[in-house]
């Protein structure tokens, strides 16, 4: 019943519709777009270094003659997947750990929060630096796991404190008296009531992950050249943003569009889940 | 000579929401005007408008004259000189009306010094005098206490002391006793009367409790959807109402003297102020509704001395001498089959045997040590037979809720036994406990908090069904919604799209989903308005009779209990003071506490209220962390005070247990000197009828 009602409300929500369409277009651009361009992302055009956008190179070229259009779209394929997955993992983990710690209290709370505090004090960059050489050659999905693993702790503390107050609500007690297992109560009553916070957190995490991945790549971890991601492109393009704006504007613009689309979907989802909103 | 003249007062909030639409009244010196109405009828907004306390964005028009001086549109500086001096206000929640960081004495002295040129010492002395006047023991010591050190009743007294500090001409009381227990309410109302006698002020008393108004007011103004619909002398309003809404309101209140058989609910809900019906705002709910009612809103017209009614059919009502029961359809509730079987032959669904629940009182942040014990529930024993309703009544802090939680948790109690449907809670394994939960369900007090706001109603009701693996869930949900008087289409809506009464019906539907044998009702109607409350009470009664349910009903409203319960147990400080059949306990209470409790309840009957003698209790409930030795009630007991020294010894040394009274079959009291007396007498008016 709930999923049906929420889906209905989501489809009725104008923001969510626009956001959904934008996201689909962006994904289509990332995966279908390369076939439309004249160049492959590995091609180098030695006759055009740093040429501005023109009919041949739609979005211009880089300093080594790569076609920006092909390279940006190649980067976006990675970034969309990394951004979405990291946000999903990080927020999901934060919600589960926070809600379980807050709801059960006692030693469960102590152990989980001890873990959270430990991860908070450890310098995440150092850990990633130590681990990533061992992952060289392994799937880049490991990189998603690593990024997510260091992005959820603060949210989970917020979730925990909100759960502490939700736990005392009568509907949570009512569910317990109905004979519903505790883990189900958490998933069914506590997490949905935190959805506003979680959705905002997830949206922020998407852009955070794309940028964070770039920072790591810059230091030589994560996505390695010659492979590219939006993050690495933005990091490189930012240095020459005034002289050769196309190096920066296209990847950055796509990142803004991506985050905006996800933001719209998130807002719509929040409204659809929150019966108090009028839309 | 009237002190306050309100003429055609209207208040409009942004978005065109008209909260108050043309209120006019006068208050004379020494007169008490009662304003009654349900939540959202605009009664509080009216008084805030008079005080000039509404937010900036509210548009107020009309005229409010105090001693002929116009208050609306007055400059803030001048208004502050009037506020607290000529008009004072007493708010509902006394805790939020005091600043927590100053002592009570300082705050009262401040109120004095703001308006009078007196020295600090003199103001402080005046504060002590005022606290003494409102009956606070050891006022010189208590004046140095902080608000949180006062109990609710004491705070409300201090609030009254502050309000009368400058001899105001007008006191506005906004639900002054709603947050208090009945015995405390009786004390506070008594103090209000003293305060009025002392100052000779006029009082505007705003409340939803028709009993309080009957005892306090000289004249009554009934409000509905932001307008007064009836106004008159208190006796006229109560005995000869001329507007169907007033009639319905009076017919829908449960009465502690057990005068009526079935409550008469008013169907439907009050209109939203943003979407008022075209004609009379009450027309959609009115059983006397005719086409002419929809044409235009009837004005408040005078029909005889000081009596105003806004109804086009009021003449007709007057000629035919109709009452609420004539106008509103009286619901027919089918009788119960189980009730015919004698109680002893029925199955016992719940048995509590000497149940104990103590909480440790801990101190210290790092190294916790036990500094005491809260005796929340201290050995209570009762049982409920099939098809029976047992009510557990008592003031806040007496252990009702703890008892309830102990039953619902189905875990082994600290001491004693909880037996549900013949199964001892201490011998249940996980599967048996879950199975038993299907037979034991609960309805909570606050219908908003008890329903997950993020779940559609269909899912809420389906939840217990799915948890216990039932089939045909959606069909059963539709059935249940129909059973509690809602439509099956409502399943796709969220709880907040429903009104309070409807939400409580959803809560009841959820409790009924698994076809339980016993339902625990935790104050199921106390959060609802009277006209809605009657409908829910009737529904509960009907369901009980039709489905053969048993109820454990926890309440503080003794009038509702009388109406719904078969047996009643009165709790005081974690122990049962008196238990027995409702007729026995209400008509011949034997424990001094029950007697005081019953005599404290205001009756919606002005004549009876005037002639009643109240048994007023001294002080507040002692802390359950440190209950008195022997009989727990002795510190407040009016009977104990009259006993000889030798007899008193027994109360101090020996804790009384519930003993059956000699004359009655089902009636016991925990008092060494139990003696049945009649507290609620029938009025002459009722005898005539």
From TrEMBL, chain A:
Membrane topology classification: Multi-pass membrane protein
Localisation per UniProt entry: Cell inner membrane; Cell membrane
Keyword presence, Transport: yes
Main location: membrane
A Pfam family assignment: BPD_transp_1
Domain ABC transmembrane type-1: 80-266
Residue ranges crossing the lipid bilayer per the database entry: 21-39, 80-104, 111-132, 138-159, 243-265
Keywords attached to this entry: Cell inner membrane, Cell membrane, Membrane, Peptide transport, Protein transport, Transmembrane, Transmembrane helix, Transport
Family membership: Belongs to the binding-protein-dependent transport system permease family. OppBC subfamily.
PANTHER family tied to this protein: OLIGOPEPTIDE TRANSPORT SYSTEM PERMEASE PROTEIN APPC (PTHR43386), OLIGOPEPTIDE TRANSPORT SYSTEM PERMEASE PROTEIN OPPC (PTHR43386:SF2)
Protein name: Oligopeptide transport system permease protein OppC
Organism for this UniProt entry: Nonomuraea roseoviolacea subsp. carminata
Taxonomic lineage of the native organism: Bacteria, Bacillati, Actinomycetota, Actinomycetes, Streptosporangiales
From TrEMBL, chain B:
UniProt-listed Pfam families: ABC_tran, oligo_HPY
GO molecular function: ATP binding
Superkingdom of the organism of origin: Bacteria
Keyword line: ATP-binding, Cell membrane, Membrane, Nucleotide-binding, Transport
CDD domains reported in the protein's UniProt record: ABC_NikE_OppD_transporters
Residue ranges annotated for the ABC transporter domain, each copy included: 4-250, 350-598
Membrane topology of the entry: Peripheral membrane protein
Predominant location category: membrane
Cell location: Cell membrane
Similarity remark: Belongs to the ABC transporter superfamily.
Entry protein name: Peptide/nickel transport system ATP-binding protein
Lineage: Bacteria, Bacillati, Actinomycetota, Actinomycetes, Streptosporangiales
